[in-house]
Write a structure and sequence with these properties.
The chain is of the alpha+beta class. The protein is built from 16 helices and twelve strands. The chain binds magnesium ion.
Length: 429
């Protein structure tokens, strides 16, 4: 921790009103997984390298989790299918991700970010938001803070990041996208319209290909055009999403930076499944959820964790992501209990599913506690005794004969499209 910031922690905090102009930094690592591998293994340097999320590198299954800048020149980026990547770049290096290693680097990154603010939100494995409203003056200006942070990351991790500075999370995130790699963009509120207006609508986080097409159909291609659209029209056409988008066009975003970094301990166990063209059949979706609950809780039991909050994630018609969470009322690591709650959350979204079928669903358990040996956390543990006994037997079978040894009758017939290693868990859904 820098002496200046330590001073800040000792001194009474400067009052920062909720309505005061905020300053937020968004840090985004450049081609993260690929850059870590290129740093560690010289043979990958200056070459197209693809870190893949797959169970079999020799197959065409899976997706590219990260592409080096050399690979991006050929139009391959993260999210590209391995099949498409191999057609475009048959001679590139393809490797499986080492998520333990990336998480280790993320921890180091967050330790650096922590020096610049006490309000740090770990947004994903390679992104963070820092609210520096109260701390920027210790380092000079917000720009000076960003420059120092970026230089420290480059020096200590030997990795580059792109940094955006703005009056809120939305603007900071969009700013960090403007110059990459190793870019630094500061957007002052007064410069917002000039910078935002010419950008395509899909520069707004959350706007996917489908939404871009819908907007295109009503003549909206740039953020400037979106800002000029009557807000009533946006609400009528796209409901709540339309309102959010219309506000985003003006760079308006009230969401706070939520401090989430507490030593990067495991914060959630989750699993998700892509559903191709999508499904609106809630019964089928509930069955899929059950399989995901089985997978997530199996890993919880293996790692010795109990959780008390369940979140369900649904991607609606590849248009928008939705996530809902609620408490379980007790700590558990049993699939049945998690599924009961997850199913309720999903069923509440019936109306949306009728309009936009789910193209991806996921479940995660958060608010974790380590299970002490033989610990009975609540009276519910006793009530769940039968399920706990079944889960223990299933665990033993899977430990011995592999993960595919046992499955539920209700899940037979559901093709498990989830391939590859489970996603890294750092408390982000
Ligand atoms: Mg990144």
């Amino acid at each position: 921790m820098s002496p200046a910031f330590r001073g800040h922690l000792c001194a009474p905090p400067r009052p920062v009103s909720r309505t005061a102009v905020r300053t937020v930094i968004h840090v985004d690592m450049d081609a993260y997984f690929a850059s870590v591998e290129q740093r560690d293994l010289p043979i990958y340097r200056k070459k197209p390298l693809l870190v893949c999320h797959t169970d079999d590198l020799s197959s065409y299954r899976g997706i590219v989790a990260a592409a080096s800048y050399e690979a991006r020149e050929f139009g391959v980026k993260s999210g590209t299918s391995v099949l498409e990547a191999k057609l475009k770049l048959p001679h590139a290096a393809y490797i499986a991700g080492n998520y333990e290693k990336y998480l280790h680097n993320t921890r180091l990154l967050m330790q650096i970010c922590e020096k610049y603010t006490d309000c740090l939100e770990v947004y994903s494995i390679d992104e963070a938001f820092l609210d520096i409203t109260a701390t920027a003056h210790f380092f000079g200006s917000p720009r000076d803070t960003a420059v120092r942070l970026q230089a420290e990351v480059a020096k200590k991790l030997r990795l580059t990041c792109s940094v955006g500075v703005g009056p809120n999370k939305l603007v900071a995130k969009m700013a960090s996208e403007l110059k990459k790699p190793f870019g630094l963009t500061v957007i002052e509120p007064e410069d917002l319209p000039g910078i935002f207006a010419p950008l395509p609508v899909d520069s707004i986080p959350g706007v996917g290909r489908r939404m871009r097409r819908h907007l295109d159909a009503i003549g909206i291609r740039t953020i400037g055009q979106l800002a000029e659209a009557p807000s009533g029209l946006m609400r009528e056409k796209f409901g709540v999403i339309g309102e959010i988008l219309h506000k985003a066009a003006f760079g308006i975003d009230d969401s706070p930076v939520v401090p989430s970094y507490k030593g990067m301990e495991v914060k959630s166990f989750g699993q998700s499944l892509s559903l191709g063209k999508g499904s609106a059949d809630v019964e089928y979706l509930c069955d899929v959820l059950l399989g995901l609950c089985d997978g997530a809780t199996r890993r919880m039991r293996k790692a010795g964790y109990l959780g008390r909050t369940v979140a369900v994630y649904i991607c609606l018609g590849r248009l928008f992501d939705l996530s809902r969470r609620t408490g379980l009322g007790c700590y558990t690591d049993l699939p049945g209990r998690v599924h009961d709650v997850a199913k309720d959350l999903l069923l509440r979204e019936r109306a949306s599913l009728d309009v936009y079928p789910a193209t991806k669903v996921g479940v995660s358990v958060t608010n974790l506690a380590k299970r002490e040996d033989g610990q009975q956390t609540t009276v519910f543990d006793v009530l769940d005794e039968k399920e706990a006994a079944v889960a223990a037997v299933v665990d033993r079978l899977k430990n011995r004969y592999g993960e595919k040894a046992v499955t539920r009758c209700s899940l037979i017939g559901i093709r498990n499209r989830y391939k590859g290693a489970p996603r890294a868990e750092i408390g982000i859904f």
